[in-house]
Please model this.
Amino acid sequence: MAAKIISGTEVSKQIKAEIKAEVDGLQAKYDKVPGLVTILIGENPASVSYVTGKQKTAKELGFYSIQDNQSADITEEQLLALIDKYNNDDQINGILVQLPLPKHINETKVLYAISPDKDVDAFHPVSVGRLVIGEAIFKPCTPAGIQELLIRGGVETAGAHVVVVGRSNIVGKPIANMMLQKAKGANSTVTVVHTGTKDAAKYTGDADILIVAAGVPNAVTADMVKDGAAVIDVGVNRIGMTPEGKAKLAGDVDFENVKEKAGLITPVPGGVGPMTITMLMKNTLEAFKYSLQSK
Ligand code: GUN
Model:
């Protein structure tokens, strides 16, 4: 049976329309809109491309948005002062510092400096702690996008065996935590498979929902997947260039073969990727609503 292919691009369109309608309503009521600043240090091409996408979407949704480009030789002290400025700027509800940062800057220190109330990436330890105890204000964007794809794709998560491949702080650990919460789109039994796991296929082959964030092309092949499983591919691997000079992308899953076995699968590109940006917008809207409440 060929899998249902779930398009993150289509689901994103729906969510963005919902966000836009809410922003229009809030603007009419309060004469204010959500504000997002994206801070980019240096000119890493992948980072430039991500940040450009985030800014474009913010503008489409009617947000107040600032793209703050800083040179790669900015000092840590200057960057911390810049974050402090945005922490105290009432027009800004969300602050995103694009990673990775240059080696001379301590990433942890920078992420800790962002006010937890404006932490739309949800990388601050306060946000991580809130997520773990089921009290999240913001969910990290990629895991939030995965959960939304499962919900809107009609996948039953309650009681399902979710197997997560990868234990990064950005995807593996938070999605594992989110799926075990007693909540909508969760309440699952969760296993995390990682580079220290013996016989990964033993676990992936039992997954009702398989979430793959390994960062390795073809990490999951058809023999590792149960018939009818929902397979979410988080991988974004650059595997060369298209004739038009664009980066050619591949996921972590052997899509062509796994799609013949799975019940549902996300493509790369056009699966989880577009959802990540959309959930950043959702978090910025949440931060804006939170700021209205706390006034
Ligand atoms: N670099 C790659 N992905 C991300 C992300 O989700 N947020 C930030 N801030 N930087 C990134």
